[in-house]
Write a structure and sequence with these properties.
Blueprint lengths: L26 H22 L12 H19 L12 H19 L1 H6 L8 H22 L1 H11 L1 H4 L14 H10 L7 H22 L2 H13 L5 H17 L2 H18 L4 H14 L10 H9 L3 H29 L13 H24 L6 H13 L8 H35 L1 H12 L4 H16 L4 H11 L1 H6 L4 H13 L9 H10 L3 H11 L6 H7 L9 H23 L1 E2 L3 E2 L3 H19 L10 H28 L1
Antiparallel strand pairs: 1-2
Helix pairs in contact: 1-2, 1-9, 1-18, 2-3, 2-18, 3-5, 5-6, 5-8, 5-18, 6-18, 9-14, 9-17, 9-18, 10-11, 10-16, 11-12, 11-13, 11-15, 12-13, 12-24, 13-15, 13-24, 13-25, 14-15, 14-21, 15-27, 16-17, 18-21, 20-21, 20-23, 21-23, 23-26, 24-25, 27-28, 28-29
């Protein structure tokens, strides 16, 4: 058995499965996209490596940002139609917008030094004001096309906020400004359009997006899926375990839960169905695994890089902190699937139908070698900005000596697809940046944080619950990255002001912002998987909630004690990790009604009682001692152990009852 993924892994960082989002470009426009992507890539390499290709010295950062943003925005209007009726061609009005973008951003780039030295963000000449107003409108439309109506509405309301903030009630009032001042601050300053989101994109995310697409076009997707089938396909519930392994890895590359579902789901869901999994269960497994990939190092999509920029730490710091929470989540999925397969006596696929590990490794060893190079440069050399470019170069060179080597047409398609992905993310980040600027110029970011702390009454748990609900609601209909940025501005400072660890606070809102993908009523990953499995979307959503249940608690755990994020000494971290693994095992077994090593937990009301007690025991085990709760780890473990013993005792009695009768 082998897997053929002839299509690229991911076309999108956006996670709305809308048919007709992208234009079907003809060869001329595909060539323009490829040339634009090539120009943007050369600009990025020139700036990140400080080569000085064009001016003999390192380009001014603001000039670089104007140039690359202009290219990206132009590509947005090539890639995304204004509506579904013009998907086949680029109409005259989009060409006109592209020409306007070229003129405006060329002007800004040419005058980059004047803009900085003369502080145009505060006092600009009339032409600067006029061009800033036009650019503002263009960015709003680019955000709508790339991110959808939710982003457009939120960004529009909040980007204009400085103009009406002084008219609002005191609790949400800010400094009022005229539209001209707002426009030049948004477009010509360093805190709005060119704030942290776009800076992270231009200096860090760019290379990783290039690496991810190159990995897909050189056969990385089939390799990882075949590797997963070779390792796990023969085990009980094997296809479901393959879904966890492959979707987790591929999701880390794409950063898009829905995109991941639609890529790996058509392969894993039929395989799960073949071995006895129900349609809704198979779809739920795929939805949870694909969503969890966003949390999985080493790449984690674009969100981790933006988080690192907000926190002022290295990307490696964020990736290391994400290791334990993501592994606990996937471990919980794995245990549940194993329990379900054991409970229903589901077998794996026949070994003779599966690829051989040795053969798969021989055909794709270089993918692992490239990953090791990437990790070595990230962790040991700490070259975050340059590492993906070296990894991409090595991958493309080795690939040319394999059956997957790129011809000219495929190479152009790779470049054009990279441009599509970059344009979409850049369009979203440019729009979201306006929110950052609006709250910064009015001084509302700090005020909102203080208000949230006040409303919570200085109760950290209440504040966390408020934050979880807010993050979940804002995550509905938005991309993970967009939701995170918005919450990082408003909510994260409130959590930090309440005394919580900054990294744990940012991780908390990222986790809860993405939970909407597996939680009804708008569970986009679950609904996409339901489409592939041809079953009820809502039923898949409920199953996804149960399978991914542990992820609703993990963010609270690592906020209570950052030792779960590998922060602290070995003696602080080790007990937390051991009890967390035990707790996740108990909760997972209880959710499926089958505890590995013990068996069925019983049925009827008594069985539900056993399962409820085991869930409680598992959560008490998993709650980290110390931290803000101040609970003793050993007392928690002892209490959980006693509850688990009671539950197992009741289950044993239920087993003996028919015999005694």
């Amino acid at each position: 058995m082998s897997v053929d993924l002839s299509k690229p892994l991911a076309d999108s960082q956006n996670d709305a499965p809308i048919i007709g989002r992208y234009r079907e470009l003809n060869s001329r426009w595909r060539t323009i996209m490829a040339l634009s992507t090539g120009a943007a890539t050369l600009l990025a390499i020139n700036q990140i490596f400080a080569f000085g290709f064009f001016v003999g010295s390192v380009m001014l950062d603001s000039r670089y940002l104007y140039l690359i943003t202009g290219i990206m925005l132009s590509m947005v209007f090539i890639t995304f139609p204004a509506n579904r009726s013009n998907r086949d061609t680029v109409p005259w009005y989009d060409i006109a917008i592209i020409l306007v973008i070229v003129v405006i951003f060329s002007y800004f780039a040419w005058n980059a030094e004047r803009i900085v030295l003369e502080a145009w963000e505060f006092v600009a000449p009339p032409i600067g004001v006029a061009l800033a107003l036009i650019t503002w409108m263009i960015i709003l439309e680019a955000g709508r096309r790339a991110g959808g109506w939710p982003i457009f509405i939120i960004v529009t309301v909040l980007s204009f906020y400085p103009m009406y903030s002084h008219l609002l009630p005191d609790v949400v009032a800010g400094i009022g400004l005229p539209i001209d001042d707002v426009a030049i601050f948004h477009i010509l300053g360093e805190e709005s359009l060119f704030g942290l989101p776009m800076q992270a994109f231009a200096m860090l995310v760019f290379g990783f997006l290039l690496f991810g697409v190159a990995l897909q076009f050189t056969g990385g997707g089939p390799f990882f899926i075949n590797f997963a089938f070779a390792l796990l396909g023969h085990m009980r519930g094997g296809p479901a375990k393959v879904a966890i392994f492959s979707s987790g890895l591929l999701g880390s590359m794409s950063g898009g839960p829905v995109t991941n579902v639609l890529t790996t789901g058509p392969l894993t869901i039929p395989a799960m169905r073949r071995t006895g999994f129900s349609r809704h269960y198979a779809a739920g497994v795929e939805a949870c695994a694909s969503t969890g990939g966003v949390l999985m190092p080493p790449i984690m999509g674009a969100t981790a890089f933006v988080m690192a920029s907000f926190l002022g730490v290295s990307y490696v710091t964020v990736a290391v902190a994400a290791i334990v929470p993501s592994l606990l989540y996937f471990f919980g999925l794995f245990v549940q699937i194993d329990a379900y397969a054991a409970k229903h006596e589901l077998k794996g696929l026949p070994k003779e139908e599966l690829p051989k590990v040795g053969q798969v490794f021989r055909e794709g060893w270089y993918f692992l070698a490239v990953f090791f190079l990437l990790l070595w440069m990230l962790v040991y050399l700490q070259q975050e900005a340059t590492a993906p470019f070296y990894a991409t170069a090595l991958l493309l060179i080795i690939n040319q000596f394999t059956p997957h080597k790129l011809n000219l047409d495929k190479a152009l398609l790779l470049v054009a697809s990279t441009g599509k992905l970059m344009a979409e993310l850049a369009g979203i980040l440019a729009a979201i940046g306006l929110i950052v600027g609006a709250l910064a110029v009015t001084g509302m970011a700090g005020t909102l944080a203080n208000d949230l702390v006040y409303i919570a009454g200085d109760n950290t748990v209440v504040l966390l619950i408020m934050g979880a609900v807010t993050s979940f609601v804002l995550g509905i209909g938005m991309t993970v990255t967009a939701a995170y940025i918005f919450l990082a501005i408003i909510l994260a400072p409130a959590l930090i002001n309440a005394g919580l660890d900054p990294l744990a606070s940012h991780m908390f809102i990222m986790y809860w912002g993405m939970l909407s993908f597996i939680t009804p009523p708008v569970a986009l990953s679950a609904f996409a998987a339901a489409t592939v499995a041809q079953t009820s979307p809502m039923r898949v959503g409920v199953e996804s909630m149960r399978l991914g249940a542990i992820i609703y608690f993990i963010p609270f755990f690592f906020v209570f004690n950052p030792a779960m994020l590998l922060q602290g000494s070995f003696m602080e971290i080790a007990p937390v990790l051991v009890t967390a693994v035990i707790g996740v095992t108990l909760v997972s077994g209880a959710l499926q009604g089958y505890l590995i090593g013990f068996g069925l937990l019983g049925s009827g009301a008594a069985g539900l009682l056993v399962r409820a007690l085991l869930v409680i025991a598992g959560l008490v085990f998993a709650i980290p001692g110390g931290g803000i709760l101040g609970l003793n780890q050993w007392w928690l473990a002892l209490s959980a152990f006693l509850i688990a013993v009671c539950a197992i005792g009741i289950s044993v009695m239920l087993r003996r009852k028919p015999t005694l009768a």
